[in-house]
Amino acid sequence: MNEKVGQVTRRNAVAWLLRAGAGAGVAAFAALAARRPAGDRMVWQLDPRKCIQCGRCETACVLQPSAVKCVHGYVMCGYCKLCFGYFKPDAARLDEAAENQTCPTGAIRRQFVEDPYFEYHIDEPLCTACGLCVKGCTNFGNGSLYLQVRHDRCVNCNTCRIAETCPSQAFTRVPASQPYLLKEKLV
Ligand code: SF4
Ligand code: SF4
Ligand code: SF4
């Protein structure tokens, strides 16, 4: 086995183990929602493929902090040491100092896995849905950080205030039985 294949195989194994643990959050949430009897009820969700990270998800929601949160598609993540969602483009050093981090609230936790891999976890209560990390990961990384309406917070307004102002028409109604548009399942 050449070195590159060996690295990829080990990386896949690490990714699988992490998905079984940390990545279970979104999947478990979606599975729980799928088991809920929902009838014909529809709920709001945003399509991460249309989102341009304009920042309105942070400010337009009737709830403060917003019902929208950053989620992490662990299946897509490269567990990069240099994460374009975590580090500011002009970070002086690649360490955990607040001045080097993109997230203004420190909502992204970084944990060493094995050289050169790091796991990134969103501390949801701290996330304001500003989209800065999503923009960095989308523009320069693999797009595994993205925004979703969290249905444990959203009050399902008849007319979603964010949908009214979203410049890319990313908001749509989806069945309450399948309330998430998980990017890793859409691409
Ligand atoms: S308002 Fe629309 S484009 Fe702006 S961050 Fe939210 S989903 Fe993305
Ligand atoms: S940078 Fe913004 S969207 Fe990303 S985790 Fe922090 S508060 Fe949430
Ligand atoms: S439906 Fe209401 S609570 Fe839910 S994301 Fe839209 S504005 Fe926020």
Overall domain count = 1
Share of helical residues: 25-40%
In this structure, how is the largest beta sheet organized?
2 strands, antiparallel
Oligomerization status of the protein chains: single chain
Distance between the termini: 30 Å
Mean pLDDT over the residues = 85
Bound molecules: iron/sulfur cluster
List SSEs in N-to-C order: HHEHEEEHEHEH
Structural class, by secondary structure, is alpha+beta
Strand content: 15-25%
Number of strand segments: 6
Rg result: 17 Å
Strand order of the biggest β-sheet: 1-6
What sort of overall outline do the alpha carbons produce when their principal axes are compared? globular
Count of helical regions: 6
Low-pLDDT regions = 1-25
Explain what you see:
- The protein has 187 residues and is α+β, with helices and mostly antiparallel strands.
- The chain has one domain (3-186).
- It contains six helices and six strands, in the order H-H-E-H-E-E-E-H-E-H-E-H.
- It has helices at 3-21, 24-35, 56-59, 132-140, 161-165, 183-186; strands at residues 42-46, 68-72, 108-114, 117-122, 145-149, 171-175.
- Strands 1-6 form a two-stranded antiparallel sheet. Strands 2-5 form a two-stranded antiparallel sheet.
- The longest helix has 19 residues, at 3-21.
- The radius of gyration is 17 Å and the shape is globular.
- The two termini are 30 Å apart.
- The model is unreliable at 1-25 (pLDDT under 50).
- One iron/sulfur cluster (SF4) binds at residues 44, 61-63, 67-68, 149, 154-157, 160-162.
- One iron/sulfur cluster is lined by residues 46, 51-54, 56-57, 131, 162, 166-168, 170.
